[in-house]
Amino acid sequence: MKRIISAATALVLTLGLTSCARVDPDKAQESVQVIAMDTAMVISTYGRHSTRAAYASEDCIRALEDVLSRTREDSAVSCLNEAGTLELGELGEELIPLLNAAERYRAETGGAFDITVAPVVSAWGFTAETFRVPGGAELEKLLDLVDGSAVRLEDRTVSLAPGQSIDLGGIAKGYAADRLTDVFRENEVPRALATLGGNVLTWGDRPDGTPWRVGVKDPARPDDQSAFVGILELTNAFAVTSGGYQRYFEENGKTYHHIIDPATGYPADNGLTSVTVVAAADTGEIPGNGTMCDAYSTALFVMGEEEALDFWRERRADFDLVLVTADGRVVVTAGLAGAFAPDEESGYAFETVS
């Protein structure tokens, strides 16, 4: 068995992000690097309060990890998984709105996004990085536990069905990006860039007044950090990418990735190799579009191209997509037509849909 974990899907193309003395205070910049939520994160803030904002951002991320991380034994999520029932006061203020959002996205996506798929993910070894291919009978038993509607929030308690556990990894980083927008507002940050693994937040524009440039990784070349299917130019936006190449293992010549279809218990195999969801970052809602993009990127990967595009057409005012398919195409929805520059040398065929 061979474990391979690639770099994050969306890489931000920026140069010269270093602090310097005697500059315009509105262009002053600070960066922090954080290892949290099993992800390497970089947050760069600008403006008069850039240093304060950068370190407040780090504090925010670490506080969220303490509540939401399934791999931390003392987190609220781990305590809920262990006990099955917790009172609201034991959960922390972050968890309740996120559980409500998770149920909304489960319902909207017909179960393609479901936080109760956690036991199945663990059976594949992705939680503890002890990779294995579970047997059919084992998966069939575990699939009986996958039902997000069974998570109950009532009488000041949160309860799981017997045997259930939850994993918020599919929306935690998106929620963290939402929370960072609050930090930026509170510190009057005119521009910022946050890369939280495959989650990117562009706040304002670049110091030279141009949009931030976000590269969408080529799933066929995961080890080549300069390999992109194209570049997105974004201002005040979230861009979240999910792809099977991000985390996977091989056994007996077959590759198994970490995005599990809650309906089958197996890694999703619907003809997509990556899904990037883009939405506005200035709504001020928490949970907001960052959380939404995170959940949708996973769910639409599970759905496959046709169902994902039908889902987008029903909600096109809310978000846009870049889909990379296994048969060598890059599909961009109409709202990104002017913001996406394809890499014509990548070997993909490009199409815009409406």
Task: Give a written overview of the molecule.
- Mean pLDDT is 90; it is low at 1-23.
- It is built from nine helices and 19 strands.
- The protein has a single domain, classed as Roll (T-fold), CATH 3.10.520.10.
- α1 (50-68) runs antiparallel to α7 and α7 runs antiparallel to α8 (289-303).
- The strands form four sheets. Strands 3-4-8-9-12-15-16-17-19 form a nine-stranded mixed β-sheet.
- The chain is an alpha+beta fold and 354 residues long.
- Helix content is 28%, strand content 28%.
Q: Unreliable segments (pLDDT under 50, ≥5 consecutive)?
A: 1-23
What share of residues are in beta strands?
25-35%
Got a strand count? 19
Which class best fits the helix and strand makeup? Answer: alpha+beta
Rounded mean pLDDT is 90
The CATH homologous superfamily is termed: ApbE-like domains
| Termini separation | 43 Å
What composes the largest sheet? Answer: 9 strands, mixed
The CATH class turns out to be Alpha Beta
